Amino acid sequence: MPTALLLENLHPQARTILEAAGFDVITRTGALDEPELVEALSGVQVLGIRSKTQVTAAALAAAPDLEVVGAFCIGTNQVDLHAAAERGIAVFNAPFSNTRSVVEIAIADIIALTRRLTVLDKEMHDGVWNKSATGAHEVRGRTLGIVGYGNIGTQLSVLAENLGMSVVFYDTAEKLALGNARRMETLDELLETADVVTLHVDGRSGNAGMFGAKQLARMRPGAIFLNLSRGFVVDYAALRDAVVSGHVAGAAVDVFPDEPKRKGDPFESELRGLPNVILSPHTGGSTEEAQEAIGRFVANKIRDHLATGSTNLSVNLPNLALDQRPEWHRLAYLHRNVPGVLAKINATLAEHGVNIEGQLLATRGELGYVVTDVGSAVAPAVVDALAAQPESLRLRLLS
């Protein structure tokens, strides 16, 4: 029975799906640091995490039984994807399941900050009645600037327009504008245009520190700033200065460079205590609906990969899926992408009298992945011969 280790309070749906598929499931509530993870992965085939556990090359090297990592979130920068691929470990995430939740909290933050609800709420709790329209605005008619026009940015664009906002966006990749949204040619052009600036960029290393004092200074005086993407993309000391000076009228931040690993751990930030600043503990995608959808989506990907060899939507291996008939036997072969591998596979099978019923090859950079269905049982000598090839990375006989 394969073993799955699920960390960081994953939704129970993940455990239910994996147990129904025959896994022995172990759950832990918090994240693990590297030494703890190395110890915990002994004899484990499946690892499930969220954003806090760092799956390093060293941890992967110490886990020879590990076959798949499920990141039950959008980002995968917490996993060494190259090291995982080199060991034939597939990594899956949930790129779409919590999109709506992030969009809704962005809309809520925009309205709350534009109406200065955080300031009014604090004053009321302090016993101060301050009925005034000063500094409060409707979002209708204001311009929203979206930096990163991907799955979240595009859906936010549509909802913001339905609220009567004008939308401009900036993305380094060519993206189709939805509705009446307008593409800005440069980030500076967006910053000089928008009343609200919201970041929805991915976790690639090139985005580190992309938003600092220079970019904040380019924003319109009195504009609102949101970061619900990655903590390391923003200089929060510079953001604090911009809020204190009044140049930025309010901010909402959901992600931080250094986040506590466990619920209840102390949290420190230079943004604490600032007026009209909303801080949330990386819960942009944390609704019950989103977590259930993520648990179901990633657990099903893990189950299908181990059962059929499907790598569809894997973030680090060549993507393919091949229909399988129950009477066939399947070989899933991950290898280095060099000439002649497919010919070697087929020659080896022919030498041992194995007839191919179906076969599919996909490549991704330095990697190649071949799934082969055969009509008869595969002898150990065939498996040994293929695994012994110098380009072989991982070979699995699935049935």
Automatic annotation (TrEMBL):
The record's PROSITE patterns line, in alphabetical order, gives: ACT, D_2_HYDROXYACID_DH_1, D_2_HYDROXYACID_DH_3
Q: Which reaction does it catalyse?
A: (R)-2-hydroxyglutarate + NAD(+) = 2-oxoglutarate + NADH + H(+); (2R)-3-phosphoglycerate + NAD(+) = 3-phosphooxypyruvate + NADH + H(+)
Q: In which pathway does it act?
A: Amino-acid biosynthesis; L-serine biosynthesis; L-serine from 3-phospho-D-glycerate: step 1/3
One Pfam family for this entry, by name?
A: ACT_AHAS_ss
Matches recorded under Gene3D superfamilies: 3.30.70.260, NAD(P)-binding Rossmann-like Domain (3.40.50.720)
| Class of the enzyme per the UniProt entry, highest EC level | oxidoreductase
Gene Ontology molecular functions: (S)-2-hydroxyglutarate dehydrogenase activity; NAD binding; phosphoglycerate dehydrogenase activity
Ranges for domain ACT = 330-399
Gene Ontology biological-process annotations? L-serine biosynthetic process
- What are the EC numbers? 1.1.1.399, 1.1.1.95
**Which keywords annotate this record?**
Amino-acid biosynthesis, NAD, Oxidoreductase, Serine biosynthesis
Q: Known InterPro entries for this protein?
A: ACT-like_dom_sf, ACT_dom, AHAS_small-like_ACT, D-2-hydroxyacid_DH, D-isomer_2_OHA_DH_cat_dom, D-isomer_DH_CS, D-isomer_DH_CS1, D-isomer_DH_NAD-bd
Q: Which SUPFAM superfamilies match?
A: ACT-like (SSF55021), Formate/glycerate dehydrogenase catalytic domain-like (SSF52283), NAD(P)-binding Rossmann-fold domains (SSF51735)
Under PANTHER family, the record lists:
D-ISOMER SPECIFIC 2-HYDROXYACID DEHYDROGENASE FAMILY PROTEIN (AFU_ORTHOLOGUE AFUA_6G10090)
UniProt lists the family membership as follows: Belongs to the D-isomer specific 2-hydroxyacid dehydrogenase family.
Protein function: Catalyzes the reversible oxidation of 3-phospho-D-glycerate to 3-phosphonooxypyruvate, the first step of the phosphorylated L-serine biosynthesis pathway. Also catalyzes the reversible oxidation of 2-hydroxyglutarate to 2-oxoglutarate.
The name this protein goes by in its record = D-3-phosphoglycerate dehydrogenase
**The species this protein was found in:** Cellulomonas oligotrophica
